[in-house]
Amino acid sequence: MLYVDSNVFLYPIVYDSEVIVEAKKSKDFLLKIAEGSVEACTATITWDEIAWVVRKVFGFEFSAEMGKKFLAFPNLKLLGVKKSTIFKAQELMEKYLMKPRDAIHVAVALENDVTEVVSYDVDFDKIVGFKRVEP
């Protein structure tokens, strides 16, 4: 099981996959999840990140459309954020000097025994026992 960071979903939405390599790689990786050849999960907060960034860049209507599309993404397991998740995120934030949102992502993954994240965010590289790979 791989944990998918929000930037993997955002690259193909925000950038042209014919021009930006990360957008193309992300699009191809997401297709593998949709087809069921890669087992993947992400946190429910990923919806918020996608909707927020898309709204800032493209406006409300497209943001709402992309939010619905994310929620209907085939073969993607959505993991919840609990009170215990936030306590773990607080610990991670302090220990690794992380951004709060990144700490939540790591906490969600670790609470669900997922130790590998697919992301372009190098901040995940400093987490002991957690491996980052790119799409």
Task: Characterise the protein shown here.
The protein is an alpha/beta fold and 135 residues long. The protein has one domain: 5'-nuclease (Rossmann fold). Helices cover 56% and strands 13% of the residues. It contains six helices and five strands. It has helices at residues 6-14, 21-35, 45-58, 60-71, 83-96, 100-111; strands at 2-4, 40-43, 76-79, 116-118, 131-133.
State the order of secondary-structure elements, H for helix, E for strand. EHHEHHEHHEE
Strand content: 5-15%
Give the overall silhouette: globular
Low-pLDDT runs of 5+ residues are none
Tally of alpha and pi helices: 6
**Order of the strands making up the biggest sheet:** 3-2-1-4-5
**How many extended strands?**
5
- The helix content, as a percent range, equals 55-70%
Number of domains: 1
Q: Can you summarize the main beta sheet? A: 5 strands, parallel
What structural class is derived from the secondary structure elements?
A: alpha/beta
Mean pLDDT: 97
CATH class annotation = Alpha Beta
CATH architecture: 3-Layer(aba) Sandwich
Q: Give the full name of the CATH homologous superfamily.
A: 5'-nuclease
CATH topology: Rossmann fold
Separation, N- and C-terminal Cα atoms = 14 Å
Q: How large, in whole angstroms, is the Cα Rg?
A: 14 Å
Task: Give descriptors for this structure.
135 residues, Rossmann fold
Outline of the structure:
By secondary structure, this protein is of the alpha/beta class. 56% of the residues lie in helices and 13% in strands.
Topology:
Elements: E1 2-4, H1 6-14, H2 21-35, E2 40-43, H3 45-58, H4 60-71, E3 76-79, H5 83-96, H6 100-111, E4 116-118, E5 131-133
Parallel strand pairs: 1-2, 1-4, 2-3, 4-5
Helix pairs in contact: 1-2, 1-3, 3-4, 5-6
